[in-house]
Give the backbone structure.
Amino acid sequence: DAAAACTSARPDQDHQVQASSRRLPAAVVLAAVVMGGAQRWWAAAHPAGTLTSDGAVIGLMALRLLQHGQLTAYMWGQSYGGSLEAVLTALVFAAARVGTSQLLAATALSSALCALALWRAGRHIAGDPAAKLAALAFWIWPASFLWRSVKPGGTYMIGLAIALCRVGALARIRRGEDGWRRWAIAGLWCG
């Protein structure tokens, strides 16, 4: 009986050891998150992170939304893109007051949403450890993404987050999670 108990417990222990060896240590995750935040702070403070007229328009659209409740379908003066970045910026303005730093922080927040969406989509495609690694790598690299992540004025980060949510929803459908709710969510992201 004792031998049977040992052999039946052993596969569970082996499985726990294998699962824990595939996890990223919390210190590594925390270090990567802090590093990505510091890189964004540096990029925003650097002359290359100077606010442009496109970024100012997003800020003005957010103010218009907060003060008058008006939201246009497209970025002012453009016939493409959307106003989702202005909505996110208005939320940041409402929570943290209006300012250039808050405007840049709203765009950095949308880049964090991209990393989160990549992790969520990647879990259904490559598994959780690979998805975490990919999301953390995406959060701290490449330099062009870091620069763009503090440059408001377009649909880049919001569009990327929506595209990654779309990939995640479609991956879940492909895995067999095909209820009407899943199809509706995929339709929303693909719409």
Notes: Confidence is low (pLDDT under 50) at residues 1-20. The chain has nine helices and no strands. The CA atoms of residues 28 and 37 lie 14 Å apart.
